[in-house]
Amino acid sequence: MDIAQVKTQLIAHDLEVFDVKFIHDSTNIFASVGNDGSMRVFDLRSLEHSTIIYEPTTNSSTNLSAGGGHYNSNALIRLSTSNVDSHYLATIGVNLNQVIVIDMRMPGIPVVTLDGSLGGMNNAAINSIKWHPLSNHLLTGGDDCQALVWDCTTLSKSPNSDSATTAPANPNDVGKLKNGELGMVIDCPVLSYEEELEVNNVCWRRNAGDWMGVVSGKGFQAVLI
């Protein structure tokens, strides 16, 4: 049996790392998010350095989670990299109902914010995010018992549709991102699926995207798009 060997240990985040993903079509470049609220990019060919492409601009506090773990109020807990464009990465914060999309070519501020408050009607946290395998659509699952599909195909265009605005529908909610700069705000999903219990995880059918998978409670539902 082959046994893998650790090449090196990277210490870049100030606190725990919660998620890590390789960039689309790259075997060398990967990104991570963690309890310090930062998103960092690494290159296996040059492990001495990392690049911070997003981090909070305000002071943070520490909260005790239901599971007993300590979360920074700025913590980023999930990361998903676009399967279509290697420049785009999506992340969610702890107990927040927004998704922020970062363009690695323009670090520091989101290019898109997905407002999961749905116009201020929903305060439930988002638990999981996954990019579609063939397009820039993003699937989210949250404590509101819903799996939602968001259209982010206009990332490189100016917002010109009814579902995209330049200001948050609920400024108090979106402001929790702590950054002051939101980019384009999308506050209306293009598809929704509802379960009886909270949605803890979501996924797409690999290489096709015609089905989505939804984990809720003790069950898994395969949903045809």
Could you characterize what this model shows?
This protein has 225 residues and is an all-beta fold. It has a single domain, classed as Methylamine Dehydrogenase, Chain H. The chain has 1 helix and 19 strands. It has one helix at residues 171-174, and strands at residues 17-22, 29-34, 39-43, 50-54, 62-64, 70-72, 76-81, 88-93, 98-103, 112-115, 126-131, 137-142, 146-151, 164-165, 184-186, 191-194, 199-204, 211-216, 219-224. The strands form 5 sheets. Strands 7-8-9-10-15-14 form a 6-stranded mixed β-sheet, with no helix packed on it. The longest helix has 4 residues, at 171-174. It is globular, with a radius of gyration of 17 Å.
Question: What attributes characterize this protein structure?
Answer:
225 residues; 1 helix; 2% helix; globular
In short:
With 225 residues, the protein is mostly beta strands. The protein has one helix at 171-174, and strands at residues 17-22, 29-34, 39-43, 50-54, 62-64, 70-72, 76-81, 88-93, 98-103, 112-115, 126-131, 137-142, 146-151, 164-165, 184-186, 191-194, 199-204, 211-216, 219-224.
